[in-house]
Specification:
Belongs to the membrane fusion protein (MFP) (TC 8.A.1) family. GO terms for molecular function: efflux transmembrane transporter activity. With about 270 residues, this protein is α+β, with helices and mostly antiparallel strands. The chain folds into 3 domains: about 1-120; about 120-195, Elongation Factor Tu (Ef-tu), domain 3 (Beta Barrel), CATH 2.40.30.170; about 210-260, conserved putative lor/sdh protein from methanococcus maripaludis s2 fold (Beta Barrel). The protein has helices at about 5-40, 50-80, and strands at about 1-5, 85, 90-95, 115-120, 120-130, 140-145, 150-165, 170-180, 190-195, 210, 215-220, 220-230, 230-240, 245-250, 260. The strands form 4 sheets. Strands 10, 11, 12, 13, 14 and 15 form a 6-stranded antiparallel β-sheet that branches. It has a 5-stranded antiparallel β-sheet with strand order 5-8-7-6-9, with no helix packed on it. Helix 1 (about 5-40) packs antiparallel against helix 2 (about 50-80). The chain is rod-shaped and about 130 Å long. About 10% of the residues are buried.
Length: about 270
């Protein structure tokens, strides 16, 4: 994805390699001197203390080589971080780094990033399910997703996770589902609608969304004023959840072409 240039690390590697070559030559010389001393010590031509000194020089050289090789391994490990690789296959959907930019570990905080990658082989759907319908859904239930701009495309998936927490403001619970995108190559971040195909014995009613100003009160119950074939009728509803500007509701509204906003309290149904 990207390579960070760090000439100091490259120079350090060259110096370590040169030091290793130097100490290896020193070790070879010390080993030769030690072998000669071993042969001469039996003839009392070399003292035991001299033999011990040469043995220590060999050990020091070996230890120094081991230390330098460990230092080289650490250097090469740090160099591997200069090549930024994706942890999984996908697409770069956002980047905050251009060729020539200065990248500093101190300047880049946890919430900042070089690249944002999306794995689009499988897409996760975030679905807001009304509180009143939560009991009717379960992990494994089938979903059918339709996306804005792809009206002729319906993609099947399955619920993978229930958040188990209801949002206080919207009165909905976040439900996650996954779809196999390998055959569709859809981009991430699409908006759309989801239909739930529930397990056997489950039943879920259609939920409608309307402006908050469409809600009225009729015959002791919440209602909306709908227009069917040009006639105005009150329709009994059950409110699922409310937000600041809209409401989710259930009711027999399949034949309603539009609803009346801010209906007058003295409004009379068409007979």
């Amino acid at each position: 994805m990207a390579t960070i240039d760090n000439p100091q690390l490259i120079a350090q590697e060259k110096k370590i390699l040169a030091d290793i070559n130097e100490v290896e030559s020193e070790l070879e010389l010390n080993q030769l001197n030690f072998k000669r001393a071993e042969q001469l010590v039996t003839d009392n031509l070399v003292s035991s203390s001299e033999l011990d000194r040469l043995r220590i020089l060999v050990s020091r050289a070996q230890a120094r080589i081991a230390s330098l090789k460990a230092e080289l391994e650490g250097n090469l490990s740090r160099q591997s971080f200069l090549d930024i690789r994706a942890p999984f296959a996908g697409y770069i959907v956002a980047k905050r780094l251009e060729v020539g930019d200065l990248a500093s570990a101190d300047a880049w905080q946890k919430e900042r990033y070089f690249f944002e990658i999306a794995n689009t082989i499988r897409l996760r759907l975030n679905i807001r399910v009304p509180q009143i319908e939560i009991r009717n859904i379960a992990v494994g239930d089938e979903v059918l997703a339709n996306f804005t701009g792809y009206q002729n495309l319906s993609v099947k998936g399955h619920i993978t996770r229930l958040s188990r927490a209801v949002d206080e403001q919207s009165g909905t619970m976040l439900v996650e589902a996954e779809i196999d995108n390998s055959d569709y190559n859809l981009p991430a971040g699409l908006r759309g609608a989801v239909s739930l195909k529930l397990s056997a014995g489950s039943k879920i009613n259609k939920v409608w969304k309307a402006p908050l100003s469409a809600i009225s009160y009729h015959n002791g119950h919440d209602a909306v004023v709908g227009v069917i074939n040009g006639e105005i009728k009150f329709h009994k509803i059950d409110i699922v959840s409310k937000t600041k500007n809209s409401v989710l509701l259930r009711g027999d509204l399949n034949d309603v072409s539009k609803v009346v906003l801010n209906p007058n309290a003295l409004l009379i149904e068409d007979s």
